Known about the structure:
Blueprint: H1 3-34, E1 40-44, E2 48-55, H2 68-92, H3 98-121, E3 124-132, E4 135-136, H4 142-159
Antiparallel strand pairs: 1-2, 2-3, 3-4
Helix pairs in contact: 1-3, 2-3, 3-4
Amino acid sequence: MPQRPMRKKIGQLLLISGPVILLDQISKVVVLNTMRLYESIPVIPGFFNLTHIHNPGGAFGFMAGQSLVVRTILFLVVSTLAIGLILHFYFKTPPTHPYLSAAFALIFGGAVGNLIDRLRFGKVVDFLDFYIGALHWPAFNVADSAITVGISVFVLHLLRNRMPG
């Protein structure tokens, strides 16, 4: 890839992933500094709370019961490989697929946001808590939201057969 298009591609990556990482980290700092662990603040009663929790595992608490050393090594290796793979796909995506590029940038930003938590705390700070009655979706954060949106756009591209040739 020539130098000029590469700079543009990097700029576009930073334009999307930078705010994701920044918003993710700022929101987590606010939660850490203003809420006690397990404190819950109703925002929309019966549907949405801000609830300060820490997730030592992966998605949905995967491997949360493993030792800190095992979790740390596994999640750092997997996160680093995933970030590398996401960057590979991002830079291979042609300009004719801007939504797919944006999806990879969102996934990248979210992965970096959660990796920062794992490096700092050995776990991820979550606080967005949606529920209906006793049915709770696992709490998540801004990084998780960006990853979910990015993966959704990627899957739509796959299902609609709109992947680059």
